[in-house]
């Protein structure tokens, strides 16, 4: 675990709040929350895991939704997986997501997640 993630984890443990990340840009904030989610899953810190899921659900975008879906699958975050699927299916974003680098990487590294996303989309279209 990176020292910054450990420090942020301690902050959550003692305050029951995600740390302020004002000095980080948006992408760095998302990355920190992803690392915190991994730590929360590894050390069975359900409250921190829930806070991280909530945060990531609110910050989904076309470029990162595929990789976030894979992260959710790997760390058993059903709400985050559902939010990713809803994001992809809403507002005709599917073409943009399928063209993103994140989705290209997802197809190669986690094909089961890719198939799961497409199955959800097909069920919804029926």
UniProtKB/TrEMBL annotation:
Domain BPM/SPOP BACK: 64-118
Pfam families on file: BACK_BPM_SPOP, BTB
SUPFAM superfamilies membership: POZ domain (SSF54695)
GO terms under biological process: protein ubiquitination
Source domain of life: Eukaryota
InterPro entries assigned: BACK_BPM_SPOP, BPM1-6, BTB/POZ_dom, SKP1/BTB/POZ_sf
Annotated BTB domain residues: 1-59
Pathway annotation from the record: Protein modification; protein ubiquitination
Membership in a protein family: Belongs to the Tdpoz family.
This protein's name: BTB domain-containing protein
Organism from which the protein derives: Triticum urartu
